[in-house]
Write a structure and sequence with these properties.
Pfam families: Acetyltransf_1 (PF00583). This protein is an alpha+beta fold. The chain folds into 2 domains: 3-97, no CATH class; 103-197, 3-Layer(aba) Sandwich (Aminopeptidase), CATH 3.40.630. The protein has helices at residues 3-17, 60-69, 72-75, 78-88, 116-126, 128-133, 181-196, 208-216; strands spanning 28-32, 42-47, 50-55, 91-101, 142-147, 150-160, 163-171, 199-204, 220-229. Strands 1-3-2-9-4-8-7-6-5 form a 9-stranded mixed β-sheet. The protein is globular, with a radius of gyration of 19 Å.
Amino acid sequence: MRPENEQYLQRWWSGVFAIEERSLWSSVTVRPHGVLGDYPGLFVALRGEGVHVSAPADDVEDLAAHLVRAAPDLLRQDAFWAELAEERGVALIGPSTHHYLDVDPGPVPGVVVPTVEQLASLRSRAGDADWRESGFADTSRPFGLERDGVLVAASNLNAWDGLPRDVGVLVAPEARGRRLAPVVARHAASYAVTAHGLARWGARNTNLGSLATARRLGFAAYCTQLALRPA
């Protein structure tokens, strides 16, 4: 990744947790929500030696004391956060891996801009759960692959840091197993990198297919992120 984009990511993640850039990924911190506003729970990121938590203001003191009592290696284990979520009676969301790409993988010939009706049909076939999990909350910048006039795979770009750079991908159930995800995702990533210099890809660590697609396209894993919040 280009040095300027490494610095950009350092600044962005430091801003989320209101910490100095030099402390990022080398310390354990708990801070009250800043840019996350009234987020209803804990937002956590881990990389290297860094473990950072953004929490509601009235939760910071007790949570910080809890983390201090834990062994550093334990904080980097999924089981620690799963146990904490159970103690609090909330859901553990993730963990997920955030990936970034700043090299254009190149556009894909034959990719189309799907219609609202085509996207609605894809959503109906895939189901609302897959639609949400695949990152289709925002469909203002969609791309698609058709077979015989039917939309069988789509990608889109959600806003990240104010620009459409966060890649989402959804393949119709009847078309899965045909390696369509990396094709349509490549086109979205190419658009994001060409237009805005960087593309982001988030995938739950249990979604091996999505993680493999990210690697295939050249995305580099950056950090692990999870959340504890009401279900």
